[in-house]
Amino acid sequence: AQDNKSVDKRLLLICELLEKHIPYYNWVGFYFKNGDRDELKLGPYVGAPTDHTIIPFGKGICGQVAVSNQNFVVPDVKSQDNYIACSITVKAEIVVPIFIDGENIGQIDIDSNTINPFTEEDERFLEYVCKKVGKIIPVDTYIY
Ligand code: SME
Fold it and tell me: Which residues form a coiled coil (predicted)?
């Protein structure tokens, strides 16, 4: 099986490309289900380091996506009660789940310093990215 290191390298490259080329993508990272625990663990990311390397299912925008299996677009983070702030510069967030064989195994999480920047085009594009990501994660090692 492919080792997690080379997968992580590719995931980091995706983060770098997205952050570099899309001006309103200011923090880009992946969270994955942490073994058999009901929590997410931070994977490769670019942007300001975050204290939130582990997020319990249900908590924050990320934790809610872990249980809803749906995209979550937040135009204005101030309007969310169940939100985990990583940086005071963040105004908006989008989280799109990653599926392998129909199972929600993780997500891409993007923070923006711009208010209400995300459109349906971002959702469709990130769904496409997540579909590709689901294919490069080896089934036996996708659980981090
Ligand atoms: N804001 C997220 C936490 C992760 S940071 O954005 C990197 C949330 O509410 O789940």
Answer: none
Beta bridge partners of 110: 28, 94
Q: What is the pLDDT of residue 4?
A: 76
Order of strands, sheet of 72-74, starting from the edge strand that comes earlier in the sequence: 54-56, 39-46, 27-33, 103-112, 92-100, 72-74
10-residue mean pLDDT series, the chain (144 residues): 78 98 98 95 97 98 98 98 96 98 96 98 98 87 53
Q: What is the CATH number of the domain that holds 125?
A: 3.30.450.40
Q: Is the CB of 62 under 6 A from ligand 1?
A: yes
> Does the beta carbon of 125 lie inside 6 Å of ligand 1?
no
Given the CA of residue 47, which atom of ligand 1 is nearest to it? 7
ipTM of predicted assembly, 2 dp: 0.96
Residue 20 within a domain: yes
Let me know if residue 79 belongs to a domain.
Answer: yes
The Cα 82–Cα 63 span in angstroms is 9
Q: Which domain holds residue 94?
A: 4-136
